[in-house]
Design goal:
Layout (H helix, E strand, L loop, with lengths): L2 H15 L2 H39 L2 H5 L9 E3 L6 E3 L1 H13 L6 E12 L2 E13 L5 E15 L2 E10 L6
Parallel strand pairs: 1-6
Antiparallel strand pairs: 1-2, 3-4, 4-5, 5-6
């Protein structure tokens, strides 16, 4: 018997017997279980973002790409030309090009990370701060906004869509 049908049977029995207080307790227990699962998923996504930061700061593009879905379904909108990347291979090439514009390794910091998880789908939004020195010796100090879409596949969270933007200054 599945967990869902067992919970449904327990609920039906409790309603039939007329113990509404017990039903409320059962519903609260179910909500607590959902919160624990969601908290675990949120922690897993935070760990994914931490791995991304560590890989970026090490200049390890292969490790960075392990945080993304590894096939052609990846969709990324970026702020620099080409601006749209379809597939993991295309986005990997963008990272190779990105790092080629720096003297030494740039660094990244993720702040204001907000995560929402529902089932096997999750979303995050953050501000990301990139610093370093470009190949002409000029300092780089840029903030971007990033929205990521995640899917939990085979028990592992991966980024399946990413949108990077900068605030527009409309006058």
């Amino acid at each position: 018997m599945s967990v869902i049908s067992l919970k449904g049977i327990e609920l039906a029995i409790l309603l039939f017997v007329g113990t509404a207080g017990s039903v409320q307790i059962k519903n609260e227990e179910i909500m607590k279980v959902d919160t624990v699962v969601q908290s675990g998923d949120e922690a897993a996504i935070r760990a994914l973002e931490d791995r991304f930061v560590a890989a970026f700061n090490a200049g390890d593009i292969d490790a960075m790409m392990k945080n993304y879905i590894g096939d052609e379904s990846l969709v990324v909108f970026d702020v620099v030309p080409r601006k749209q990347y379809l597939g993991a291979d295309a986005y990997r090439e963008d990272w190779v090009d990105f790092f080629s514009h720096f003297s030494g390794r740039p660094k990244i910091e993720i702040t204001e990370l907000g995560i929402t998880v529902e089932g096997n789908i999750g979303f995050s939004h953050s501000r990301q701060h990139v610093t370093g020195t470009d190949i002409q010796g000029r300092p780089v100090d840029r903030w971007v906004r990033v929205t990521d879409g995640y899917r939990k596949i085979g028990g592992k969270w991966v980024i399946v869509q990413e949108h990077v933007s900068v605030p527009a200054e409309l006058k």
